[in-house]
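**User:**
Make up any protein.

**Assistant:**
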Amino acid sequence: MAVTVVFLGPLRDMAGEDSREVAAPLDWEGLLAAVGDEIAGQLRNERVNVACAGKVLADKAALLAQDGDEVALLPPVSGG
């Protein structure tokens, strides 16, 4: 049983990989532990969003990913 965590944008560069399989079920604290300190620090920033099973979470701390779910880490979009 696994959840796929997908790193996007600069978070992919920090992680050094596109995605990572982690044990399911996965909650917010489990996600922070699974991604390491540097990325966990970024995730705590309100401008970084988390999507689970294709839906952006209004409250990241409410994350509860199940087996087969994809959790995408969405950094802020820059541009002008």
About this structure: The beta strands are 2-7, 19-23, 26-27, 49-52, 55-56, 64-65, 70-74.
